[in-house]
Amino acid sequence: MTPIDAGKRKNLGRGLSALFGEQEPEAQAAAPAAPAAVAAPANVPVTRLPLDLLGPSNLQPRRHFDETALDELAASIAEKGVLQPLLVRPDPNNAGRYEIIAGERRWRASQRAQVHEVPVHVTTLNDGEALEVALIENLQREDLTAIEEARGYKRLHDEFTHTQERVAEVVGKSRAHVANMLRLLTLPRAVQDLLESGQLTAGQVRPLIGQSDAEAIAKLIIKRGLSSRQAERLAKGFGRKRRLSVVPKDTDTAALEQSLEQATGYKVGITFDGKGGTVTVNYGSLEQLDDIVRRLSSGGRLKPRPDDADLDAEDLQHAS
Fold it and tell me: Which residues, at least 6 apart from 310, have a Cβ–Cβ distance to it below 8 Å?
């Protein structure tokens, strides 16, 4: 298979039907908001294949399928059939079987509708072209999460040697958009998982890129229900706090911290910005918090409780 020529590559950004020089057909019923992505060229016959000869592609960037939407599409297919042919290619690893390039959602819904065969258009795209087409179909339908989209771009870049400019051209996006999406993959995996599950949006997590406290900030954003703008302010506040905390302490401040730690049995931190500062007392459990409150409420006159003597260096480290 020769690579898609320049004319076809240019058309990819306008939709899969443009790849074949055809107009887009009417979208499958029960999904009116999704633009049609796969067209069956008039000059190439549409083939019908049994569902059990088809299978998902590992090049498919989409990993999450909405169960309710699948049920709705299955009901439509049970009534009217599959209106848009799937785009498939011979499975390179299993003779006689076919790999779905575009249309996995229709294939899954057809299984639920107990349909035995579906219309397909068989093509011979190579791996790089297949990934391009799968990305375009999902981007047109806005079916991908931000992380799925970013991982698709990364695969085009890493496995198929596409530059960011080339990726942008293929999918019909700006280079800045592609670059910003790729930066999401520098976030900690825990934050990526929150983004992929829909608990956070790309706008909420972008301010966390490069933050050493990204996971903690992400959890606060969710807990407080912050908007993207509020998340940005929160991230900036964490950044200022971190910059203050890394300023070397003078010997007097360090000695005072040590003295307070010995007196209270808890990890104590003191920061000073030239005008004022903060004193923090760290605790590792609600029981320790109760003890701190008791000590402060009594003016520090309480004797340590018996279990205070058990606080060793490991406890202090945990509390910090």
Answer: none
Q: For 103-142, how does the pLDDT look when each residue is reduced to its tens digit (9 = 90+)?
A: 888 899 999 999 999 998 888 888 888 888 878 777 766 6
Per the residue annotation, which of 72, 79, 104, 142 is the catalytic one? Answer: 104
The residue-averaged pLDDT of 276-295 equals 80
Which CATH fold topology does 6-144 show? 3.90.1530
Question: What DSSP string runs through 99-121?
Answer: EEEE-HHHHHHHHHTT--EEEEE
pTM for the model: 0.54
pLDDT 10s digits, 40-87:
445 556 889 999 999 888 877 777 777 888 888 889 999 888 888 888
Q: What is the 3-state secondary structure (H, E, C) of 73-92?
A: HHHHHHHHCCCCCEEEEECC
- Looking at residue 249, what DSSP letter applies? P
Catalytic, 117? Answer: no
- What does the domain layout of the chain look like in residue ranges? 6-144, 188-245, 251-319
Other CB atoms within 10 Å distance of the CB of residue 169: 17
